[in-house]
Amino acid sequence: MTIFNIFQTTLYTISTALLVPVVALLILLCLWLFIYTGGFFGEWVKRKKMKLDRPLSEFLENIQKMGRLPDNVCAALPVHIVTYASNLENILKRSSCLKEEQIEDLNQKKENALLKGVDRIRLIVRIGPSLGLMGTLIPMGTGLAGLAQGNMSQLSSSLILAFTTTVVGIFLGISAHFFTVIKEQWMLEDMRRINLITEAMVKASDKGGPAGETL
Fold first, then answer.
1. Using an 8 Å Cβ cutoff, are 44 and 187 in contact?
2. Is the dihedral of CA 151, 8, 140, 169 positive or negative?
3. Which of the pair, 195 or 213, is modelled with greater confidence?
4. Domains of the chain by residue range
5. DSSP state for residue 56 in the 8-state scheme
6. In degrees, to the nearest 5, what angle opens at C-alpha 127 toward C-alphas 156 and 134?
């Protein structure tokens, strides 16, 4: 056996050994995406129901006067934005010379958390089709080896596995891309609202408003 044959056999062994993890990952990603889809449409329905009768910018004056979110605004915003506003209110009530840095830290942590939420589904856009391609090429090698030995049944089963993994991988990529686009729109809208709320509440504190009066 030549050294090239040894390399070829080694690579073939590694390639075929990857088939089981690839197929298992595709199945796990499908299950994860199924669960994620439920949460996504649940959030979609909530956001459809939670709409302000006027733009948030028209409530900024009230927010500035009160130093917190009015109840009608809280009811029309996602829970995580209300929680952010509550945390911001607590920071503004503290008597700290590093208040500005703490607000910046809170804002950046919130932005990172929203980005992570989008990145989690964005990974599937690349991973899904890549696993699908691996799941196509690996069985093709096995099938061709079976064809060389005249084993048509092995070729047939390998082709079925190759085509199904391709379809599943593409499905994962398309679905994840759809979710990514919508999640990015939600993230941008949420960050815009968070920044508006932060500006209003910080100005209230600077002017000695309700949040500042508690110092």
1. no
2. positive
3. 195
4. 8-50+114-203
5. G
6. 25
Of all helices (H) and strands (E), which one includes residue 110? helix 99-148
Nearest to 120 by CA among 183, 70, 61, 171: 183
pTM: 0.81
215 pLDDT more than 80: no
Name the packing angle between helices 152-206 and 19-49 (round to 10°): 40
Q: Which residue has the tokens 């830290």?
A: 105
Output the DSSP codes for 186-199.
HHHHHHHHHHHHHH
pLDDT of residue 36: 94
Task: List, as one string, the DSSP characters of 75-89.
Answer: TTS-HHHHHHHHHHH
In this prediction, residues 143-158 reach a mean pLDDT of: 84
Q: Name the helix (H) or strand (E) containing 102.
A: helix 99-148
- Spell out the residues 6+ positions from residue 69 whose beta carbon is closer than 8 angstroms to its own: 63, 77, 82, 85, 197
What pLDDT, in 10s, does the model give residues 8-45? 888 888 888 899 999 999 999 999 999 999 999 999 99
Contact (CB, 8 A) for 122 and 172: no
User: What is the sign of the dihedral through the CA atoms of 51, 114, 86 and 100?
Assistant: negative
